[in-house]
Design a protein that fits this description.
By secondary structure, the chain is an alpha/beta fold. It has a single domain, classed as Alpha-Beta Barrel (TIM Barrel). Helix content is 43%, strand content 15%. It has ten helices and eight strands. α7 links the parallel β5 and β6. α2 packs across α3. The protein starts with a helix and ends in a 19-residue tail after the last helix. The chain binds pyridoxal-5'-phosphate (PLP). The site of pyridoxal-5'-phosphate has 15 residues, from β8 and α10. Pyridoxal-5'-phosphate binds next to β8 and α10.
Length: 251
């Protein structure tokens, strides 16, 4: 039985509303694919669960979410421990300091924010110790003025080549956060930059698009969209910042 606080945030029946929201997002993904002449099977929805507490994530799992993405490693570690009995596939989508690589190496199946060789080396070393491999996405800063994280576009191709030095890392694609703007032309330009970089590197995946812009991202070629608020509802005020450039009330 959800508490009053849970009901205020997630509704009377969180599991039913998550299932309905998932169906809605999937329908929008299908419509965006139709507009772009793409097969919806080529777009993966990665639910982003930051700020959603573990007991509520049990309901999300029951509503059909078998994979979950977290921004902050500390928050993810707590949730993986609380939900260790469920076979959830965990991704980390936010910036990671090298000294936290050991935590990620223990449980994550994917990391979307790789942006330094130092971190790549540390992850590789920790994964080696754990006997695990990791799918990685290289983060590019496609909105230079907004974000401190991610490689400059001009650095991406060389960086991807150097990842061959780290056998435990499997480079799968590129990731970006588009500019925070109501101007969809500017947002789409970020997605286009990432797509050009992806084509240059020969990698397969484009991890781009969030609640406010995933349909545009799909039209620009996204193969993975990272969606939180459209599934779980707005995050409580004061839960940010989860990245530089955060605007209160928007994310
Ligand atoms: C929170 C987050 C998202 C999802 O944002 P929503 O607005 O909740 O859809 C996507 N990517 C990253 C890196 C995030 O931290």
């Amino acid at each position: 039985m959800p508490s009053a606080e849970d009901r205020a945030r997630f509704g009377e029946d969180p599991q039913a509303s998550f299932a309905a929201n998932l169906a809605d997002v999937r329908a929008r993904i299908a419509a965006a694919c139709a507009r772009a002449g793409r097969d919806p099977a080529g777009v993966r929805l990665l639910p982003i669960t930051k700020t959603v507490p573990p007991h509520i994530l049990r309901l999300a799992y029951a509503a059909g979410m078998g994979e979950m993405g977290e921004n902050k490693i500390q928050e993810a570690v707590g949730k993986t421990e609380a939900l260790a009995d469920l076979p959830i596939r965990w991704s980390i989508v936010g910036h990671l300091q090298s000294n936290k690589a050991k935590y990620l190496a223990r449980f994550a199946v994917e990391f979307h924010a790789l942006d330094s060789l130092k971190l790549a080396a540390e992850l590789n070393r920790r994964l080696e110790a754990e006997g695990r491999d990791l799918d990685v996405f290289v983060q590019a800063n496609t909105s230079s003025e907004e974000s401190k994280f991610g490689l400059e576009p001009a650095e991406v191709a060389d960086f991807v080549k150097r990842l061959g030095e780290f056998p435990r890392l499997r480079p799968r694609g590129l990731m970006t956060l588009a500019i925070f703007s109501q101007d969809m032309a500017k947002v789409r330009e970020c997605f286009r930059i990432l797509r050009r970089l992806r084509d240059e590197t020969g990698l397969e995946h484009l991890s781009m698009g969030m609640s406010g812009d995933y349909e545009a991202a799909i039209e620009e070629g996204a193969t993975i969209v990272r969606v939180g608020q459209s599934i779980f509802g707005a995050r409580p005020a004061g839960s940010g910042p989860y990245w530089p450039g955060y605007i209160p009330g928007t994310g």
